[in-house]
Give the backbone structure.
Amino acid sequence: MARRCLLLCRGVPPGPESGWVSTRRAKRKHNWLMTWLYVDTFGSFIGFAAGLPLLIKNNFEAQGYQATTSAWIDPFIGALMRWAGGWLSDKIGGARVTLLSFVGMAAALVVVIFALPSDGDQGSFWAFFPGFLAAFAFSGLGNGSTFRQIPVIFRDRHMREAEGMGPEVQAATLKQSEMEAGAVTGFYASCLALCWWFCARKGAEAPS
């Protein structure tokens, strides 16, 4: 019932092809490719946010550095860079910005790894912290760019398919592209919800 109400509110008649993820959409290559890229960029941001305080505590607390006073800065910068990723994607294209974010994250993490203590060396907090800051910034940049890529890819593909078929068909295909873009981002939201319900909440079936 809830699904039917949602579809009716969106002006989409309920039917076998009107669900969030139909068999037809599941077979489309770019649905899965963009899901992969979006999960990678936003998932990296989440992983960095969880790992940074632990790395500071386990490796640099003995040197006087506290996670509680510095760990919030990097996620804050990453969140701001999400807006920058969308803005820059409008200027030069989302794919270019996404590529830049992956290269930047990889380079930043190399700096982070080499800045950690090892073999009796105390490491360098002032190389580690800016390296992590850059990793957050590039993950936020990529999150913004992939979020911009998703509707553009589906809109352009559907409009090419509807070319020359009249304004009514073009309007219908544009609505279809919006639904597919929502399905991709909705997939990630469903992953978060499932993880929280079954693994992370108090009283979860499989706490881990």
Observations:
- The longest helix spans residues 125-161.
